[in-house]
Specification:
GO terms for molecular function: transmembrane transporter activity. 71% of the residues lie in helices and 0% in strands. By secondary structure, the protein is mostly helical.
Length: 684
C-alpha cells in the first residue's frame, strides 16, 4: 500500500468541511440553489434566527402550542421558497439579480414565501377564544388563507422532498371531498372544501398537528445538538473507537463502517449525514482493500440508516412516538436498544460473510488509530453527551436535555484548546442545524393534511377493517395446509396482517421520507394491529422499523445514492445491494409482535421470553445472512440456502419447538461446512 494511502487510514481523520460539502451535494433535502451574496446573508441570518429561537424556547419555556408551531412553520416555508428552486434546472442557474429576480431569486418565489408566512401566522395571531368559536364556522378570510396555505405547503414539499408525498396528500383530500362517490365500505358523507380547509387549518388535527409539533419541539433541538457534537470532535472520537474495535478483523474498513455508523448514529438521526460523514473515510478504505464500489456504498448506506433507531438520539419518528403513545422518551430509548442491535448485527453478519467469502483482510497496525491519543485529544467532547443522557434519565423533557447538551457543546468548543471553535463556527453550526429543519418541517406539515383527513373521515378504521378481513381470509385458505398445533387461525391472521403492513411500509418508502412514512403508517396501520391485540408500542415499533428501510429502498434510497456518489458506483445497484444487506434483519419486527419481551418495556415482559426471542433472532439473522451472502463457513449451495431461509423463519418464532426444528434444518449444512473447512481452510 502506498504511503499516502497509509496516512489516510492512520488515523482515519474526519474532514468535517468535506463531509458537509458531500452532504449538500448528495442530500437533496439540504441542497440549496446558488444565492447572490446578499440573499445568502439573508438566508443565513434567518436560519441562525430559527436555531436561536428553538434553543431559547427549549431552555426558557415553550410558547403556546399554536404560536410555537406557527413561528416554526413560517420560518420553514418562507425559507423553502428562497432556497429550493421550482425545477432542478434552478440549481445550475447563476445567482444574478434582475428586475424579475431580486437578489437572484424569482419574484414569484418571493411572493410565495411572503404568502406562506402570512397564511401560516394568521391562525396563531387569532385570539384563543375567537379561534375556538371559528372552528366549524370559518370566516371567508380563514378559508382563503387556509386554501393558500395548503397550496403553498404542497408546493414547498414538492420542492424539498419530491412529488410522492404531495400526491398522496392530494389523493386523501380528494377522498375527503368525494366521499359519497367512494365504493363499498370507503363511502362517507363527504366534506365541502370549506369544511376541509377548516379542519386542516384551524384545528390541531391537521397542518398544525402532532407531526409539526414534534419537529418543532423535539427533532430540531436534537439535530442541532448532533451538529455541534460533531463539530467539537465527538464524531472523530467515535470513528477512532470503531476503527480500534473492528478494524483488525476480516474486511476491517467495512466493519469500521458499521461500528462507526452505530456510534455516530448516537448523535445523528439523519441517514444521509451519517452516510457522508462516516463514508467519507470508510468507503475509500473499503475500495482499497478490494470491496467493489457498489458493495462499499451499500455497506455504508445500510449501516447509516440504523442511526434513526440508535439511542439516545434517534430520527424524528422516535420523537413522534412520544406524542402518539404518550410515553416518556426514556421508555422509547429502552425499547429501541434491541432493535438497534439487531439492525447493525444484520448488516455486520452479511459483511463478515462477504469478507470471508472473498478473502478480504483487516487493517494493519499501521493503519489503526491510536486510541489513547484520540481520547487525550477529544475526551471533552463526551461531556455534552453524558450531560444530555443524565438530564434525560432524570425525567426532564427531551428538549431541556438537548438545551443543556447544546450549551455544553458550545462551552467545550469555545474552551477546549485542542479543538477550539471560533464564534464564527458557532454561528455556522446554528445555520447548518437549521438547514435540516426545512425539508422535514414541510413534510411534517403535509403529513398533517393526511392525518387530518383520516380523523375527519374515519378512513383509518375502514382501512383497518379491510386489512384484517383480507388477512383472515388468507389465513382461512392456508389453515388447511398448516398443522393447528403449529399455528392457530388467530396467529395466522396476525401473521398475514403483519406481512401486508410490512410490504406497504416498504412500498411507501420507495417514494417518501422515513418520517412521513412512519406517521402515515402509524395513523393507518398501527390501529389495525391494535385490533388484533398487539400492544401500541409494539405496533408502532413494527412500522417504525420497516419505515427505516425507506432510505435504502430504490428508487428513492437517499442514503444509498449518497454513498454511491462517493464510491463512484451505479446508484441503483448500490441501492439494491443496500436493501439486500438490510434484509438480514427483516424478520426481527415479527419477533416484536409475537414476543413483545424483546422490546424490554412491554407489560408482559419476562427474562425467559426475552432470552428465547433474542437468541432465536440472532441465530435466525445469521442463517438468513448466510443464505443472502452465499457463505457460512464455506460457500453455500442452493439447497443449503433454502434450508437456511426456512431455519431463519423458524428461529424467529419465539417457541422452543420451532427453534429445535430450525436447528435440525441447519445440522446438515453445518456438517458439510465443517468438513469443507477441513479440506480447504478459508483465507482471512
Amino acid at each position: 500500500m502506498a504511503a499516502d494511502e497509509k496516512s489516510s487510514l492512520s488515523p482515519m481523520e474526519l474532514d468535517e468541511a468535506k463531509a458537509r460539502e458531500l452532504e449538500e451535494q448528495f442530500d437533496s433535502e439540504i441542497r440549496f440553489r446558488p444565492l447572490a451574496p446578499l440573499a445568502s446573508r439573508l438566508v443565513g441570518t434567518l436560519l441562525v434566527a430559527l436555531s436561536i429561537f428553538h434553543y431559547y424556547t427549549a431552555g426558557f419555556g415553550l410558547l403556546p402550542e399554536m404560536i410555537h408551531r406557527g413561528i416554526h412553520l413560517s420560518f420553514v416555508l418562507g425559507l423553502v421558497f428562497l432556497v429550493f428552486p421550482f425545477t432542478r434546472r434552478g440549481y445550475d442557474q447563476p445567482a444574478t439579480s434582475s428586475l424579475l429576480r431580486p437578489l437572484g431569486i424569482s419574484i414569484i418565489d418571493w411572493f410565495l414565501a411572503i404568502g406562506a408566512v402570512v397564511a401560516v401566522l394568521h391562525v396563531p395571531l387569532i385570539p384563543l377564544d375567537d379561534l375556538a368559536f371559528r372552528v366549524g364556522n370559518p370566516t371567508t378570510t380563514d378559508v382563503v388563507l387556509g386554501g393558500l396555505l395548503i397550496v403553498v405547503l404542497l408546493e414547498a414539499t414538492r420542492r424539498s422532498v419530491g412529488w410522492p408525498l404531495p400526491i398522496i396528500a392530494l389523493i386523501f383530500m380528494a377522498y375527503a371531498i368525494y366521499g359519497p362517490s367512494m365504493p363499498g365500505i370507503l363511502v362517507h358523507p363527504g366534506a365541502s372544501i370549506s369544511q376541509l380547509v377548516d379542519h386542516l387549518y384551524l384545528t390541531t388535527q391537521g397542518i398544525y398537528g402532532i407531526a409539526l409539533g414534534v419537529v418543532a419541539t423535539y427533532v430540531f433541538h436534537f439535530v442541532l445538538f448532533g451538529v455541534f457534537a460533531t463539530r467539537i470532535g465527538l464524531g472523530q472520537l467515535f470513528l477512532d473507537c470503531a476503527a480500534w474495535v473492528a478494524g483488525r478483523f476480516a474486511g476491517g474498513p467495512a466493519k469500521v463502517s458499521i461500528f462507526g455508523s452505530a456510534l455516530f448514529g448516537m448523535i445523528s438521526g439523519s441517514s444521509v449525514a451519517n452516510t457522508v460523514t462516516v463514508g467519507s473515510l470508510t468507503i475509500p478504505a473499503m475500495k482499497r482493500l478490494g470491496y467493489k464500489p457498489h458493495f462499499a456504498a451499500a455497506v455504508e448506506a445500510a449501516s447509516s440508516t440504523g442511526g434513526q433507531i440508535m439511542p439516545p438520539i434517534m430520527g424524528a419518528a422516535a420523537f413522534l412516538m412520544i406524542e402518539f403513545l404518550n410515553l416518556p422518551y426514556t421508555t422509547i430509548i429502552l425499547a429501541a436498544i434491541v432493535p438497534a442491535f439487531m439492525h447493525f448485527f444484520g448488516v455486520l453478519i452479511q459483511v463478515h460473510f462477504e469478507a470471508k467469502r472473498t478473502g478480504l483482510r483487516g487493517m494493519t497496525p499501521e493503519e489503526m488509530p491510536d486510541l489513547k491519543a484520540a481520547f487525550k485529544r477529544d475526551w471533552p467532547a463526551v461531556i455534552p453527551l453524558v450531560a444530555l443522557l443524565v438530564v434525560l434519565l432524570s425525567g426532564y423533557t427531551p428538549y431541556l436535555a438537548a438545551f443543556w447538551g447544546i450549551t455544553l457543546c458550545v462551552l467545550v468548543g469555545l474552551l477546549n484548546p485542542r479543538k477550539r471553535m471560533s464564534i464564527a463556527e458557532v454561528f455556522e453550526s446554528l445555520r447548518d442545524g437549521a438547514k435540516y429543519a426545512l425539508a422535514v418541517g414541510a413534510a411534517a406539515a403535509t403529513v398533517g393534511i393526511i392525518v387530518g383527513v383520516v380523523t375527519l373521515t374515519g378512513v383509518g378504521f375502514k382501512i383497518s377493517y379491510i386489512v384484517t378481513s383480507t388477512a383472515a381470509q388468507l389465513a382461512g385458505w392456508f389453515e388447511a395446509f398448516i398443522p393447528a398445533a403449529l399455528v392457530g387461525p388467530q396467529a395466522l391472521t396476525l401473521l398475514f396482517t403483519l406481512i401486508m403492513t410490512g410490504i406497504v411500509c416498504i412500498l411507501m418508502g420507495c417514494g417518501i421520507p422515513t418520517t412521513a412514512n412512519y406517521i402515515i403508517m402509524a395513523t393507518i396501520a398501527a390501529p389495525t394491529l391494535g385490533l388484533l391485540g398487539v400492544e401500541q408500542i409494539v405496533a408502532h415499533f413494527f412500522v417504525f422499523y420497516y419505515g427505516v428501510l425507506a432510505d435504502i429502498t430504490p428508487p428513492v434510497a437517499l442514503a444509498a445514492y449518497a454513498a454511491a456518489g462517493m464510491a463512484g458506483s451505479d446508484p441503483f445497484r448500490a441501492g439494491n445491494t443496500a436493501f439486500r444487506l438490510g434484509l438480514g434483519k427483516v424478520l426481527v419486527p415479527f419477533v416484536f409482535v409475537f414476543s413483545p419481551s424483546l422490546l424490554l418495556v412491554t407489560s408482559n415482559f419476562t427474562w425467559s421470553a426475552f432470552a428465547i426471542a433474542f437468541i432465536g433472532c440472532v441465530v435466525g439473522i445469521t442463517c438468513l445472512g448466510a443464505a443472502l451472502s452465499g457463505f457460512l463457513l464455506v460457500r453455500t449451495k442452493f439447497w443449503e440456502n433454502i434450508l437456511l431461509i426456512f431455519a431463519a423463519i423458524l428461529f424467529v418464532v419465539p417457541e422452543v419447538y420451532s427453534s429445535l426444528l430450525g436447528a435440525a434444518l441447519i445440522v446438515p449444512v453445518l456438517i458439510r461446512h465443517v468438513l469443507g473447512m477441513r479440506r480447504a481452510p478459508v483465507p482471512g
